[in-house]
Amino acid sequence: MDELAEALAISKKTLYAHFDNKESLVRESSLAVFDTVCREIEEIKDNATHPIEELYTVKTAVLKYYQNEASSPVYQLQKYYPEIYAELKDQEYDRLGVMVKSSLNIGIQTGLFRPNIDLDFVSRLYMNGMRGIRDIDIFPPDEFNIERLFESYLEYHARAIVTPKGLAILNEYTQQQNRSK
Q1: Residue 26 needs a FRET pair 20 to 30 A away by CA distance; which of 37, 50, 66, 133 works?
Q2: What's the CATH code of the domain at 99?
Q3: What is the C-alpha to C-alpha distance for residues 136 and 77, in angstroms, rounded to an integer?
């Protein structure tokens, strides 16, 4: 709190006038970042040509909030503030799950995703998988590259639901990803 007050050029008293303690500051900051991420994903969804493009654009946007090292704010939150991390996880499906379902539905309507997928099941499975790859107990950051985890999971998810038409587009995106490395 001393360092933060100094960086903001305010007194600790002023800082504590807005936040009861360090945990409340972390909670409010985390919720603000979560809101920013959600708004960014909503914008991507609104501007994407199709759901496969949306998946890859969202991946790129979300990766900027993750670093493949123990000093990443996301990993620090999970490690040192598990209650706040759990609170954010609870809000994820409420806000992001709706967007995932909508994208799946658009994918079905445009012939990119199989028409017989269960929207509720697949959206929950996708969200749970995204949580899993971010779990530092399952994928310790010093052993796993977060970008590679996102890429692998995204391809795994997409290949499970695409039609032949969607597969052609997916293959273009994966080839593009491989060329950019």
Answers
A1: 133
A2: 1.10.357.10
A3: 11
Distances (CA, A) of 4 to 10, 13, 73, 113: 9, 12, 15, 48
Would you say residue 38 lies in a domain?
yes
**123 in any annotated domain:** yes
* CA gap 11, 28 in Å, rounded: 19
Q: Tokens at residue 59, please?
A: 């991946």
The reply to whether 16 falls in a domain is no
Q: Which residues pair with 113 in a beta bridge?
A: 162
Q: Check residue 54 and report its DSSP letter.
A: H
CA pair distance 176, 60, nearest whole angstrom: 13
Strand partners, 162: 113
Q: What is the pLDDT of residues 129-148, one digit of tens each?
A: 998 998 888 998 889 988 88
Task: Name residues whose C-beta falls within 8 Å of residue 174's C-beta, 6 or more positions apart in sequence.
Answer: 155
State residue 138 phi and psi, 5-degree precision: -85, -45
Instruction: Work out the average pLDDT over 138-166.
Output: 92
Whether 169 is covered by a domain: the verdict is yes
**Structural domains counted in the chain:** 1
The arithmetic mean of pLDDT across residues 17-33, rounded, is 90
